[in-house]
Amino acid sequence: MLTLIREHRSLFLGATLATLALRLFFFVYFPAVTDDSRIYADLATNWLQHGIYGQTQGGHPEKQIILPTDARLPGYPAFLAGIFWLFGAGNFRAVLLTQILVGLATCLMVADLARRAVSERAARIAFVLAALCPFLANYAAAELTETLEIFFTALALDCAVAALNRMHDARAMGRVKMGALDQACCKLWAATGAAIAACILLRPDGGILLAAVALYLTALVWKDLSAKHRVGKKNLADVLVAGIIVVVFALAPLAPWTIRNFRTLHHFQPLAPRYANDTDELVLRGFNRWVKTWIVDYVSVEEIYWNVPGGKIDPEKLPSRALDNPAEREATLAVIADYNESQDMTPELDARFGKLAADRIRAHPIRYYVVLPVVRVADMWLRPRTEILPPDVRWWEFNDDAKQSFIAVGFGLLNLAYAAAALLALIRRPSGIRWAGLFVGFLLLRSAFLGTLENPEPRYTLECYPAVILFASRVLADLQRVRRPTYKTS
Q: Is the full-model pTM beyond 0.90?
């Protein structure tokens, strides 16, 4: 990669300046510190200052206590604690500036991935696409896990492709011995596992990448077992060793966290609770299941899902698909009215929402298990990624600020362009991308998982962007290639 940068200094320098400028623009004008950001910061501060991985409870400073928790994995709080130790507790500006540098490193990682999987021409294009991508730049200025998660995803994929390339080259040159990977290849697989471990420690869904790598290596094992020639069977042990290395390095860092949870909180929890709840906190399973019987877009997440508990549910904001018939409408509005009186979700109210959900699922199982998940995934992939920017969540209505709505439309078209270019690469010539099955498997697995969520947030697909940019760079590299005319000499 260093050789490529030296050969194209002007391009990489210009793109680097552009990516820094774009991220600094979001840093100056649209920094984002959300409720989740404050939770992470509280965990980091308590961990750093008191040695307790826990959240502060109690309103008055003199009555505040710190309660240990496992509601969030320790990856991002550890990152924040390191920044706070260097620059002072609560220094969000230092956090965002550090994430800008991580974002630049991500661009280089995506370029190296494209170089290994496609070509040097694609690597240059991938660097520019990543550098100028406003969606990645936007979240570099948000105190959330996305920037680090995307970086480690790109790193894991890059290391995996480097290892696969090395194994392929060794086989081609006849240097493979049964059950023996060379030291460099083992280190690459170990780095792959370590990067996946970082993804998991940032967010539980980082484990999807481990599943994608494991399934792809399993497919290679199956291919080797099916091979009639001796070379294919001879490679089987090497693929199995590679898989073991990845799994061990990916899961080993979870052992201290699991032990800590068992000793401190007295229960087995290797990741984090599904709903990021504390042990004594009511999990709204009935309400969440009811929401999943009708929700398909981010609008409802902001207007309804995030309001519970603690805020009112506006029945007027419910889409028509949430009320299938007059009897169901009456029962639903009655439960909502009872909740709105106190805005506190009790077990009884949650059970009533659960009853509504069970009836709706029984009446329309295909809608619940197939149609709605597919539409939710489509919404996450295609919606303009402006959820932490000024455009209104109902940008298409052009009611409040037409300028902001036009910005949302522009973001939507740009997002569509990235996705369409990636899809075109898969349709036209997927064989032009080495190990394409690994990336496709990751995209499909992550999309399938996202369809199961009741909060379709577009940011959850950003981890897929290293693969999306890789595919898009393949298409643009083909378009950029110009054949020089040849002339016959007499």
A: yes
